[in-house]
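Long-time lurker, first post.

We've been arguing in lab meeting about whether zinc ion would sit comfortably in this protein at all. Half the group thinks yes, half thinks no, and nobody has a model to point at. So I'm putting the question to the forum: if I give you the sequence and the SMILES, can you give me back a predicted structure of the complex? Inputs are below. Any interpretation is welcome too.
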Amino acid sequence: MSCKAGQRHHPLRIRQPRLSETLPGLGRPPLVFNVALPPPDLSSWLAPPSGMPGVWVFDSGRSGPEMVITAMVHGNEYAGGWALENLRRRGPVLSSGRLTLILANLEAFDRFDAANPVMSRHVDEDLNRLWHNTRLNSREHSSELERARKLQPYIARADLLLDLHSTLWPSEPLFIAPPRQRSAEFACALAGGKELPQTVLTDLGHHGGSRLIEHAHFMSAGGTGRSCLLEAGPHWEPATVTVMESAIARLLVEAETIHLRGQATEESCPPEMAVVTDNIIARNADFSFIRPWEGGVTIPKAGTPLAHDGHDLIYTPYDECLLIMPNLRPRRGQLAVRLARRTAVLFRS
Ligand SMILES: [Zn+2]
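Top reply:
Settle the argument with this. Predicted structure of the protein with zinc ion, as C-alpha cells:
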C-alpha cells in the first residue's frame, strides 16, 4: 500500500518501557574524518581587484544576469574554495552579464587544522544563520555578522545565487531551494544537468536563523532574485569539487535562459523534488541512530526504527521516507536529521 500525499502511517516518536528490550543503537561514532583533499592556496583572494577580500568580479561587458556564486560560508568547507579558485585561475567564459565569486568565511578557513578539521566551521557563529534583516540590521557584533554586512551589497544584486556547501557525514549530493517558486525553478534547472544531483529539496527554513539563500532579496513577494544551495558531497573529498564544478559550468551556460524563463534550454534527466516534513531535534545527549544512515537514503516502510533519543524510539512516519543529511553525533538540542517526502509539485502557482 502506498502513502497518499500528506498521510502518516506511524507515529514519529514512541516512548519505550524503561526495561524493555529495544534495538541496539549505533552509539556515538568517533569524530574521525579522512581529509583526502588538502586546503587550497587562496592567497590571491586576500587583496583582489574588487577591493573586498574574498570577492572576485568578472564582467562580460554585455547586459545579462547578475550571477553570484558563494562558497566557504562554512570555513572548513574548502572544496568550494578549490572550485572557485580553479574557475578564477582559468578565467570564466561569460556570454553576457556579470559573475561575482565570493569566498565568504576566509577568517574561519585561516584556522583550519587537519588534526581537528571540524573546528574551523566558523569564528563566532554560523554564517549561514544570520541573513535575516533583524540580525543584519541589529547592533550585535560578531566576526560573521560583520562579514555578512560587508557581503550584503553583492548578495542583494544577484539575479541567480548559487551557494556551494559540503557535508561532514556521508550524504548523497542534493540541491536545496528556499520556499519560493522562482528559486525552486532555478534549482530544478541546475539539477537537470549531466552529472549533477537530481534531488531538489525545499523546506520552510532552518531552525536557528535565516540561511544566505533566504535573504530578503530572494524571499520577497514580487522579487526576481533566485537562490539555491548545493550540498555537493563530503567536505574533504576531491569528488565534491567535481560536483561543484559541474554545477558552476551548468549555471554559466544556462544563466540567461534560467533568469528569463525559469528553466534551462536542455535537460539530461528530470529533477526529483522533495519537501521536508519533519525536523528531528535530539532531545537527549545520548541520541543515537540505529544504523549509520547515509543522507539521501529512502526508507520504504512507515514504522521503521531510525534512532534512540533518551527513552524514545524514532520511526519513519510514512512510506518512502527520504533521510536528509543525518548528523550521526548531534548534541542535545541540535538537528539530528530531516525527513522528506518526494513530491511531483513543489509549489502551486
Ligand atoms: Zn555548509
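For your lab meeting: The first helix runs from residue 79 to 90. The chain has seven helices and 15 strands. Whichever side wins, do check it experimentally.
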